[in-house]
Amino acid sequence: MKILITGSSSGIGKETALLFLEHGHSVVGLDRKEGSIEHHSYSHEIVDITSKNLPSLPSFDIVISCAGIQDSEDDIDINLKGTINVVEKYAIHPNIKAILIVASASAHTGAEFAYYSASKGGLLSYTRNVAIRVAKYGAVCNSISPGGVKTELNRPVMEDEKLWNEIMKVTPLKKWAEAKEIAQWIYFLTVVNRSCTGEDILIDNGEMHLNATFIWPDK
């Protein structure tokens, strides 16, 4: 199948692209940064997803929105509006099979940065909106809400021993997810799943869901 993945230069987006390529799919990645994946079935477009002039691309079977930033006044423009731009441009058509939007555990708790929490909370509502609209095509649209994931964005706490220990004290499973694990959830919800739609899956090792605790360095 033909797959579109935003935020494919690093983190969850990159691991998701690699997993789909491993399974023999064709992947196009969109990112503000240069691509770092070398594979005959992968192509990369340097794109600002907040732009209304997104490039014209061939039709996709699956569209996955992983692009995002945190702790910035641009969070709503990129995380929420950028996702809407991409989905509306590339995912709403009769041949679409599945859409997956990466939200955040903070969409449920609000226990994080203000603009970030608001942007991710909006994605939950938008996911349901899209699920209703693409159901007539037999397509599914879901979101996932990761808690702590070991990516570059989270280095401020991952590399601070004191803060990391505080996080582990309030995380029931005493760990964070790897980006590869989140990619596996995405693959299941878009390729294997054909009946779950309009839902959000919380993947946080119990950290925010059971405790609603957010720990970050003081500014």
Give your account of this protein's structure.
By secondary structure, this protein is an alpha/beta fold. The chain has one domain: NAD(P)-binding Rossmann-like Domain (Rossmann fold), CATH 3.40.50. Helix content is 39%, strand content 18%. The chain contains eight helices and nine strands. It has helices spanning 11-22, 75-90, 106-109, 114-134, 155-158, 161-169, 179-192, 207-211; strands spanning 2-6, 26-31, 42-46, 62-65, 98-102, 140-146, 149-150, 177-178, 200-203. The strands form two sheets. Strands 3-2-1-4-5-6-9 form a seven-stranded parallel sheet, sandwiched between helices. The radius of gyration is 17 Å and the shape is globular.
Throw out a few tags for this protein.
39% helix; Rossmann fold; 7-stranded parallel β-sheet; two-stranded parallel sheet; alpha/beta; 9 strands; 219 residues
> Low-confidence parts lasting 5 or more residues at pLDDT below 50?
none
Total beta strands? 9
Shape call:
globular
Mean model confidence by pLDDT: 95
According to CATH, what is the class? Alpha Beta
CATH architecture: 3-Layer(aba) Sandwich
CATH superfamily: NAD(P)-binding Rossmann-like Domain
Helix/strand-derived class? Answer: alpha/beta
Helix content: 25-40%
Let me know the largest β-sheet. 7 strands, parallel
How would you spell out the order of helices and strands? Answer: EHEEEHEHHEEHHEHEH
Number of helices: 8
First-to-last CA distance: 45 Å
Radius of gyration: 17 Å
Major sheet strand order: 3-2-1-4-5-6-9
Number of domains: 1
Q: Assign the CATH topology.
A: Rossmann fold
